[in-house]
Write a structure and sequence with these properties.
The relative contact order is 0.07. Helix 1 crosses helix 3 and helix 2 packs across helix 3. This protein is of the alpha+beta class. Strand 1 and strand 2 form a beta hairpin. The chain contains eleven helices and eleven strands. It has a five-stranded antiparallel beta sheet. A four-stranded antiparallel beta sheet has the order 9-10-8-11. The chain has a two-stranded antiparallel ribbon with strand order 1-2.
Amino acid sequence: MPRPTGRVLTLLELLQSGGTRTAAELADRLGVEERTVRRYVEQLVDLDVPVQSLRGRYGGYRLAPGYRLPPLMLSDDEALAVLLGLVAGRRAGLTTRDRTANETASAKIRRVLPKHVARRLDTVLEALAFTDRPGEFDTPDAGLLLTVADAVRHRRPVSIRYTDRGGRLTERTLHAYGIVAHAGRWYVTGEDPGIGEDRTFRLDRIADARTLPGSFDPPAGPDPAQRVVSGFATAGYRYEVTLRIHGTVEQVRAHLPEAVASVAEHEPTAGQDPSAERWLRVELRVQQLDWLPRTLAALDRPFVIERPDELRDLVLALAERLTSHARRV
């Protein structure tokens, strides 16, 4: 009886996905008995694939750590998902500094695709359109990105050389909590133990990174993504703006997202619908005020400007211009 090569390759694919798989789990996925799974494992070992057998209650099978499989086995849907991800990443600017890596990776996958899958992919890409322009952002070095990611995972301090907005180069130590992709850029957020405060750094402005001895405990509270957007909303800029807006949180967030403004949500009074419109306190810090009058007009909700007075003057000036234009025949 010929060997069921297809099932052996499926077993290899399951092990390639990572983790330890029990014999019962593999038998169920392959539709065979556990003793057949053991025979398939032996066939992989005969092919010099380092499958490890782990005994005990939580035992099973796994690939040896660090082993790189020669073949990359993807289903039709998996290949399509990978290539669409590469296209979307290139459009959003979320690539490494070697911009050609995205294109060469796409080309390598496309070369080994069956013709019918390649035709399906071409059909999707020809029909796909984007409402925004391709990303033109600075991107991080791949080695630096991996170094910082390793420090995040193992909770190790990392030393970085960073160039700030003013062009000043400094060397800092960071307890990195996480890496966040936001608005087409890569950021790392964590605590600067030298000053005992949280900081967020753009990865493309980091010239060098190296892990340091020791470890740290991550703090409780918001996750890294929430820390980044909250940090943007409270960053130190020229103007501190405080508004009271009558509406729902969803209405306000549609024009003033978390990365721009903080919204104080007051508890509704007894019997009031939690999603009902009510006065909300909105605070933000901005370098320029000229865009805010247009945003408040687009929001189309009752509002009160508490500060600064310059914003009130700009809103009145916009209202006068609109009134003057509307009266023209």
